[in-house]
Fold:
Amino acid sequence: MVSVTSSFSGQSRPGVPPRLPTPPTGWPIGSYGTYEEAQRAVDHLADGDFPVQEVTIVGVDLMLVERVTGRLTWGRVLGTGAASGAWFGLFVGVLLSLFNTNAGASFGPILVGLIVGIGFGLIFAAVGYGSARGKRDFQSASQLVAGRYDVLCQPRNAERGRDLLAKLAMRPVDAPKD
Structure:
C-alpha cells in the first residue's frame, strides 16, 4: 500500500518543520527571560555537537507590544505619501522609459511617472488619514514578544541537553566560547 500525504497535512518528516501550525513537542531543558538568552542556549548546544534539529524555542505568554514612534500631522502624512508615491512613480517611469522607442525622449516617461506618482501618493495618504477622523493621530511599530522562552528537546536527548545547559548557566555571560 502506498501512502500519499498532502502538502497540507499536519505530518512532516523528521528535521522538517510541520506545514500547519502544531503545538511543539519535547521536554523542557531550559527556560529563559529573553529570546537572546534562548538563542545563546541553543548556540551552546550546537557548539557541543548536540543534535539541535531536535530542539525548539517556544515563546510562552505572548504579548503584542505596540511602541508609539511619533505623532501624525497632516504635514507628516502628506510628506510620507508624496515620498512613497514618488518612489513608485519613479519605478514606473523607469520601466516605461526602457520600452520607449524615441531616442530623444528618454527622460519624459520618468518625469511623468514621478509627477503622477507624487500626485497619487498625496491623494491616497490624504484620503486614508482623513477617513480616520483623528482617531489615530500617531504612528507606531508592533512586535510580538513572549514573557519567557522555553527550550524543548525530544526525550531521547533531553537529559544530555539539560547537562549542557547547566554548564552554560555556570559560565558568565561575557565568557569566551570554548
